[in-house]
Amino acid sequence: MDEIYRCKPVQNAQEELRLITIDASSTVDQISCSLDTFSLQEVTPAYHKFVEERSSLARSTSAVLAEWLGTGHFDYFPDSTRHRFLWGDYCALSYVWGDPTDTTIILVNGVKTQITKNLAEALHKLREGGQFSGRFRLWVDAVCINQLDNEERSAQVAIMRLFYSQAWSVIGFLGPQEDNSDKALDLISSLAENFDSNEKCEELRENMMQHKFSHTPGAWLALKRLTFRPYWERLWVMQELALGGTRTLLICGSKRISWQTFCRAMGVIQFYLWVPRHRAIEQDRLAEPDSRNEGDWHNTHTLDHIWKDLWQLTMVQESRSTSASWNRLMEMANSCDCSDPRDKVYGLLGIMDPVLSKSIIPDYRSNPTEVFIKAADAYISTYKDLELLRDANLWGSQETPSWVPDWTWRGRSRDSRPDDFFQPDFNQRENGDGSMERRSYRADLGLAFALPPRIGGRSLLCQAVILDTVDGLGDNPEAANPNRIQSQGLASAYGDFDAHSQQLAIALYAGRRRREGDSTALLNFPLTQESAEKQFRKLGWKRFIYDLDFYYSRWTNWFSSNAFFRVAGRDLRAYFSDRIPEGADVSDYWSAYQGWVRTALAGPRRLVTTTAGRIGWVECAKAVSLDVELEVRREDVFAVFPGCSMPILIRPVNGGDGFQVVGEAYLQGVMEGEVRELVRSERYKLQWIRLC
């Protein structure tokens, strides 16, 4: 293959890429392809004129191609008369490389070339339709990029956004037909038909809760298995599907389904069938005894990833209104795997803010630590802020400085940030405008850099307000190393018992609000399963009744673990009533409950008290083997940095000469710019510190 690549070089300046044609002579036993180089700048005069006339319109490739076709519907494999380039047109393949030791041979320009059987299976499936044997070609990264040439690989990865965003269509190959995948795709099509009707979705939910199932037996179990396929775990898939947008077609065995249809079904599950689907799966498992040996049936990772990450990314790209934030991309990267840790950054350049991605030059000669430091440097230089500190901590494996986010750290979780929306509004379920960006808190409001942060070697010199110190740490029964530290202080930063109770209630779900009548909801929550069932059934609160069998025990377990944790001189239990008052609004309680789940458990986090009498949350370790010394401890301090929306917990090192970043924190009463007034009153000062 080296000789082929040398004979078919690519030039980024001409937006060149290699494409393959699947030869008509290919057979079931032997795939034969031809590989050649083409330029995306060589458009036909007709298409050039068409685009020029519409150049002022900010529209997605999908919208442009739909109009170019002029047929009222999108065709994934266009007629040759609608090809955009002088040499034809192309489609990009999204697939899983698979087991690198399980390989087979194909012919590329007559040369025997080794690829994985998974890719070979995808090529065989695409050969059957005959769409790729003429002027409509195929881009496949493993074949079209010389993976052994780091210089070429770096250059081509830098413009991979172009390859997918300009492809006529993107084919997502999920794998062969197996485990009743046909039933799964039929179920998906059926669920998607309900997407535009709240009434139909509600009717479906009520029927399923009453065990009135209309699906084909085994379909829900098959859907679960389909979402467990390795395809969804691949990091590169994120930008491939997002950039393909509504031009993406999924293929599984002989079945084909649009990416939009697939995601609409996931939306129906997310908003209406989250609990009922458990019952449907259990019924299918009872009918299939062998399935009882398969574990992890309640794992919702992929369902969340598809709807909350992949589809939201797709909508953002289609709307062309914004880009996913740094924080959000890091969370998404945690949901996926890649064989090369450097691709945690490079594999997301196509869906990153273009202003930032232009400053990150792929270089496969650099090691992962160097790549992460360069990415952090690019972020600070581009945005002139320190919001990236929210993703920094001591717990990464790549030996980066503590202020540099380690993209391989597995502790980040979707919906785990206090400023996350737990779920998007169903009525705005296909509106990608701004949905990926967030900066809800404003701890740094009114604070400004005297001079920009400066990077020197492995250190970051910047300004911060040192605000408070850890006093006590509560338990998190779902964390690896609870290591509770009982509070010693008696002070309250908020006032008397009633005022402290109000602030505690808000802090429990990180709501930030200081004066709202419904903000004390969590202090009235039932504290045992028995009390909860009695009160919820009496009130007729279906959402909570459904949840009793699944997640509510997490609340009662958390409370029992922290009942005797001291807050402003009292046991935590003293602040709770265990009784929902008359006239309570279920929406207020559900919102507060979900906010608490997101804040306390999804992180996970631990309740913290400070020497000044404040209440908040700090992150805790997520790995059993993690050194306990890396956990939050009493001498750690809270700092507010200009350009960072949340307080950061830092640890003095080297005799106070520097600080390490421990992690982000929530601190009630300092999340809305209150620190600015503290600095103005000269009670605190903005000072230079060195992060290392």
Automatic annotation (TrEMBL):
Boundaries of every Heterokaryon incompatibility domain copy: 90-240
Compositional bias of kind Basic and acidic residues: 427-437
Annotated region described as Disordered, given as residue ranges: 418-437
InterPro entries the record matches: HET (IPR010730), HetReg/Transcr_Mod (IPR052895)
Alphabetical list of Pfam families matching this protein: HET, Het-6_barrel
Highest taxon, organism lineage: Eukaryota
Protein's recorded name: Heterokaryon incompatibility domain-containing protein
UniProt organism field: Cyphellophora europaea (strain CBS 101466) (Phialophora europaea)
Organism placement in taxonomy: Eukaryota, Fungi, Dikarya, Ascomycota, Pezizomycotina
